[in-house]
Amino acid sequence: MTVLIISLGFLFGLFLQYAKVNTYNTISGMAVLKDFTVAKTIAAAIGIGAIGLSIAIGLGYADFHIKPFLAGSVIVGGLLFGIGMAILGYCPGTLPVSLGQGSVDALIGILGGLAASILYTVLSPAIHGTMGPDLGKIALSSAVQSGTAGYYILAVIIGSGLIAAAFWLQRIEKKKELKWLVAAAGIAAITVTIFIVSDRVLGASTFYPYIADRLTGLTDNAYFIKQVEQSGFYEMKFLAGAFLSGLVYSLLKGEFKIRLLHDNWIRMKGSSSAGRILWAFTGGFLLLFGARLAGGCTSGHIISGGIQFAVSSWVFAFFVFTAFLLTGHFFYRSVK
To answer: Engineering a disulfide at 84: which of 100, 287, 291, 336 sits with its beta carbon 3.0 to 4.6 angstroms away?
Structure first.
C-alpha cells in the first residue's frame, strides 16, 4: 500500500506540473485575475470527480467522507486560508512539488506552516467547541439518496456545469491549450482512486501538524491522536511522492532551479529577498492555521468535499476564494 500511496502522490505532482498549477506565478496570477489556470483546473476536477465518485459510490466501491459543517471554523478558516494562499502563492499540496523544483520560498512557506501547526495543536483544546454552530454532515446525499437516478442526474448536471464554467473561463482568457483539462482529469481520477482503494479523501494539510508534532513531541494529546496521526502519516507518504515528482520532472525537463524570487513577485512586489522571506513565512502560517481550523485544504476540503457536494466544503471554497481575490487585489495592488 505504501508504494501505491507514493505512486499516487508522484502522479499528482506530475499532473500539477504539466499544467503548472503548482507554481507561484500561476497561483499569484489567479490572485490578480491574470491567469485562470487554477480556477479552471479546480472547477473541472470537481466536475469530473463528482460524476466519477457518484458512480463509484452507487456501485458500492466507495463511501462518503463528508466533513461536518462547523460554521465558525469553516468560515474563519477559509478566510485565513485564502489570505495565506494569495500571499504565499502555494497551497499545502503544491508546496512539496514546488520545493522539489527548487523553490526556496516554498520551503519557507512550509516552515511557516509547521509553526502554525504547532500553535494550533497547543491552542486546539481552547478552540475546540468555540467555533460553532455544528450543523452536521450536510450534503446533496442528505436530500437525495445516492445511487438513485435522481442523484445521478443531479451529479451529472452539477458536474457538467462546473466543467462548462471552466471552459467559459478558457474562453474569457482566449486561450487554446488544454493542459489544465488534462491535469483536472488526472487529479479527479487520483481523488476517486483514493476514495476507492484507501477509503479516505485526497488531502495534504494534515501532513504539517503530523511532522510538526512529531518533531516537537506534541503527540500525547487528543488532537494529534484523533485527527492527525493516521491521516498525517498517509499524507506524508503521498506528499513524499509529490516532492519526488517535482524533483524528477524538473531535472528531466532541465527546469530545476534554486530560486527565491519568481517573476510575478519581482514584477508586483520588487526584488527584496527579505520581503519575500517574511511574506512567504507569514503566508504559510496563515494558510496552515486556516486549514487546520477548517479541517482541510484545497485538496482535502475543496476538491474532495466538492465532489461529494458537501455543504461545508462548498462554503469553505466560497470564503477561501473571496479572501484570496480580495487579498490579491490589495496585496498586489502595484501589479502592472
So the answer is: 287
